[in-house]
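INFO  loader      accepted 1 record
INFO  loader      residues=735
INFO  predictor   begin
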Amino acid sequence: MIMLKRMNPTLAAFVLILIIGAGASAEEGMYPMNELGTLDLEAAGLEIEPVAIYNPDGLGLVDGICKMGGCTGSFVSDQGLILTNHHCAFRAISDASTAGHDYLAEGFSARTGADEFPALGYTVRITESYRDVSAEVLGAVTAKMTPLERTQAIEKKMKEISLAEEKKRPGKRAEVNEMFIGKSYVLFIYTYLKDVRLVYAPPKAIGNFGGETDNWIWPRHSGDFSFMRAYVGPDGEPAEYSADNVPYRPEVVLKVSGAGVDDGDFVFIFGYPGSTYRHRTAAFLEYLTGTYMPFTVDWYGWQIDHLENLAPGDRDRQLALAARVKGLHNTFKNYRGKLQGVDRLDLLAKKRAEEGRLQEFIEADPDRRERYGEVLASLDEYYRERSADIPSELWLRYMLRSPRIMSAALTVWENAQEKGKPEMERERAYMDRNIDQTINRLKVIADNFDAEADRLIMTDLLLRAGDLEEWADMEVLDGLTGLDGVEAAGNYLGGMFADTDLMQQEYLLKAMEMSPTELEELQDPFLELAAALYGPWVSEREEDKSRKGELDQLQAALVDVRQEFLGTDFVPDANGTLRFTYGSIEGYSPQDAVWKTPLTSVRGIMEKDTGVAPFAVPELMKELIAAEDFGTFASDDLGGVPVNILYSTDTTGGNSGSPVFNATGEIVGLNFDRSWEATINDFAWDHSYSRSIGVDIRYVLWVTWKIGGAERLLAEMGVAPDVVKSEPGPDADQQ
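INFO  predictor   done
INFO  writer      dumping tokens
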């Protein structure tokens, strides 16, 4: 069951039961932490008590991790040092970089605490406790409500519960998350840290070795890791960035092991996986693979082609665009993998067959037929309607989000509308508790703004609108879609860009304080376009909420009847909340007569070296490998330092940065990716092909020591005292 962490045990009776059925695979599942008691982890290979991992009445290993943006991080020292992925710190590295100090290319290493670079817009969340609030949330719903009213009532109740909890717990952050759609809701309490700084990142040639060519591919040789640090005010309370802040003191520090892992070793992971869709229907899968993902792949591919080489010779512009392009690449390749995986596994046919058996089960009983007879048919119809609307819906979303200037303009305009409403009625981004994050996002957008990139994107979107009946003749576009060809559209937009100051940070922040009338008086062309599109945007959002109200009831009914059909309850889909998964270090066979072993080494790096990015090995690394200067971090079996590891845990996006633990609870790796075949994990998991990829901790330590010269970090983590001299941590600079 989803139990209460550090709460009175008598309250557990109110919690939703989610016990895993006896037939579930030992490794499958992103389990809520309290599920550890239902799993035979000792038989799987765990050598410590499960309570040492998660203790509902005290502290466990899980208290040493955090959520950082869309990634996971681990506290690896008592001075707030966080180990996470290079790609999770990528924007912070590029933000710190200039053409004169290109930390993305050269790597970044803060020699002292005073040199650690503020990572604007990064936050750290540490899960403190959670409890089921399903009865409270669903108690706000009445049978007479329309689907839209239902969604609005649930949203309002979730906000009320969160704000009430924060009032009782000053300084904490409260969020209610939907677990099973329309069925169960859990309140999470977080410590929320807002001063995060970059400490160490290897050069991109190490941190992203192989680039997009190797992304989602095994064998892999990427040093995808970085170190960051969380800070708090001098009083120990969360605070915005200040030079007077001091390192955060985590309640639990995770032990880093220099021993590494071997083939067959038991491992486990916990972190904050994003979204999975395993309890959805074949109709949902058809909707995604037939319209949503192909449309997105096409649009992201177009942007990559046009943005990747936009600024030859201008390194500052390239750095400003780097995080944007990297994010496009990751989604683009992930979606392509999913599309191929659904086809390769014939997943649609399998889901349809399962649903056929489920429908037979429903029809076999009059009571079930009365309650559930139309559920699957209704879901089919729901997603058919969604598919038909996708081109128009996504065009509007991309017009208001893909050009950064339009994203900023919409935020400014929407903020002016929302701030006049009562707190509970505002969209989340504009609530008082969230507005600082929204403003920080705008600062990041302004700092990395590239007018030519946005002009290219908007030009293409305007031309695409001409092929969409809903937008071709819309008055809100004021004739823009009628422009004849790329040159005419580009010239028109050139005039708009010449007449705006919106992306100047001071101007942008002042605009966030203005009323709608004051914004209209600015006569900014992008604010005017955002205002014109705001009506359709709000209508689409309200339609989405109405659809969600309809979907919630159908999906909740589907869960009920599937549990009855299967004779077991099951784990909710991942949703960005804390989860646990376990497996083994092991290879796999992606095709006939091919077996991929589970560890790579620095030898493989040299075999891939071409001297040209993304396979250009830094000269210092070549020298160290040639000299076999590995310290204590080499593997005799591999003949050098292990680089990446492969394991059968159940992960998805959001598990980036999750620590990989050995049987005794020590960090032996850092999760960062999945194999190509496992891109399908969001829809289905199977031991034969689902593999996750991590950086071997020995490579992390070796690179930090030998390439980065960051001995102070290894000493701070208490690693390899025989080869590392002891140096003070950042507190020495704070005294």
